[in-house]
């Protein structure tokens, strides 16, 4: 699709204490039906007024996003929920949802709720009777949403299938000329998208997409945790085949670098030996090679581009650096990539979920 070239404005603001006046032009664009990228505590999002179909369609066009993939609606305060959603039907479910909002909002938790008819564009819900809502924990995001007066539909601000953006420069590289503006508020925080849950009953939630709020944190808030098939640890790559995704990030390939990527799972010594042999074979074929390693093991590798994604002792650092690392492989022209894996506990569950999607679920066990 040939899109008209847009004049993409750029506003640089203080990511910790933004001046609302500096966001006035961006807010006016959103009210007028435009598309503006902005930082959240997870990744940069591409926002448009969730109530206006023509505005939401500009998100899909800019990203090249499949039309049956629903969008998350971002709000700035709890009072906006009443206009967007209906009460949960299951006994006690509303109480549990409220408790999760009290604990994790603002923050990287998205809750799927019954949508109020006509409250948002049908393009936001992809024809479902639910809407995914969250309140981001980023001063710029909250200030922009409030200034615009709009609930903002906002998927990650990247071309569909590409690694999500954690810096404004990533957004520029993917979407400049395709959107109306970018608010540069510095680096995003968590580095992985929000956790998406649905409330099953008064005591249970189901994780539809793992993310910045871990299963352990949800349990600590008094919720029993179930997993959707595609969100469970070690989920099969075809678990969602033929299904309409019930939340963002469930169905389609995401986060992929341009080079062919493979995960290698096993004891560290065996993993290093296997990757070393694969690197040598690829070099013999004239391919440029890359390894995504944890700090504890990086010195074992001799590829053209060895990137440290973070530490096994602090998987939150790996989560923060994942997408930037995948984009760096692209910048270095790497054609074959091998990545170490990590335990699927805590934030490691979300990290492995994104790594598996980036690799197209290509995993070697050694």
TrEMBL record:
Family matches, as PROSITE patterns: YRDC (PS51163)
GO cellular component: cytoplasm
Record: residues binding L-threonine: 42, 74, 134, 154, 194
GO BP of this protein: regulation of translational fidelity; tRNA processing
Signal peptide extent: none
Keywords of this entry: ATP-binding, Cytoplasm, Nucleotide-binding, Nucleotidyltransferase, Transferase, tRNA processing
One Pfam family cited in the UniProt record for this chain: Sua5_C
Cellular compartments annotated: Cytoplasm
Gene3D superfamilies per UniProt: DHBP synthase (3.90.870.10), Threonylcarbamoyl-AMP synthase, C-terminal domain (3.40.50.11030)
SUPFAM superfamilies per UniProt: YrdC/RibB (SSF55821)
Sites where the protein binds ATP: 65, 69, 130, 156, 164, 209, 255
One GO MF term: ATP binding
Catalysed reaction equations from the record: L-threonine + hydrogencarbonate + ATP = L-threonylcarbamoyladenylate + diphosphate + H2O
The protein's Enzyme Commission number: 2.7.7.87
Residue intervals of the YrdC-like domain: 20-213
Summary of the function given for this chain in its UniProt record: Required for the formation of a threonylcarbamoyl group on adenosine at position 37 (t(6)A37) in tRNAs that read codons beginning with adenine.
Family: Belongs to the SUA5 family.
UniProt protein name: Threonylcarbamoyl-AMP synthase
Organism: Paenibacillus lycopersici
Higher taxonomy: Bacteria, Bacillati, Bacillota, Bacilli, Bacillales
């Amino acid at each position: 699709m040939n899109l008209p070239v847009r004049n993409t404005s750029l506003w640089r603001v203080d990511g910790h204490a933004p001046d609302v006046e500096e966001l006035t032009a961006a807010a006016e664009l959103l009210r007028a039906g435009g598309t503006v990228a902005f930082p959240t505590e997870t990744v940069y999002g591409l926002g448009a007024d969730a109530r206006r179909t023509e505005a939401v369609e500009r998100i899909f066009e800019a990203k090249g996003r499949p039309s049956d993939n629903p969008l998350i609606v971002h709000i700035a305060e709890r009072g906006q929920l009443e206009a967007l959603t209906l009460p949960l039907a299951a006994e006690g479910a509303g109480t549990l949802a409220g408790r999760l909002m009290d604990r994790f909002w603002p923050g990287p938790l998205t809750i799927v709720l019954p949508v109020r008819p006509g409250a948002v564009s049908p393009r936001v819900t992809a024809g479902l009777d639910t809407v995914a809502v969250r309140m981001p924990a980023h001063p710029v995001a909250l200030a922009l949403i409030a200034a615009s007066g709009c609930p903002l539909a906002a998927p990650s601000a990247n071309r569909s299938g590409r690694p999500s953006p954690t810096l404004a420069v990533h957004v520029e590289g993917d979407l400049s000329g395709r959107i109306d503006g970018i608010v540069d508020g510095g680096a995003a925080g968590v580095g992985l998208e929000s956790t998406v849950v649905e409330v099953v009953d008064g005591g249970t939630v189901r994780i539809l997409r793992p993310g910045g709020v871990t299963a352990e944190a949800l349990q600590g808030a008094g919720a029993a945790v179930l997993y959707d098939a595609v969100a469970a640890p070690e989920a099969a790559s075809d678990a969602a085949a033929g299904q309409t995704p019930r939340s963002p990030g469930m169905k389609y390939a995401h986060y992929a670098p341009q080079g062919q990527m493979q995960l290698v799972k096993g004891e560290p010594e065996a993993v290093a030996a296997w990757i070393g042999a694969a690197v040598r074979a690829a070099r013999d074929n004239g391919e440029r090679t890359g390894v995504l390693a944890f700090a504890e093991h990086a010195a074992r590798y001799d590829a053209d581009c060895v990137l440290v994604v973070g530490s096994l002792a602090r998987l939150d650092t790996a989560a923060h650096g994942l997408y930037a690392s995948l984009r760096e492989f692209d910048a270095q022209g790497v054609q074959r990539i091998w990545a170490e894996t990590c335990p699927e506990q805590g934030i490691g569950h979300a990290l492995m979920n994104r790594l598996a999607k980036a690799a197209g679920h290509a995993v070697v066990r050694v």
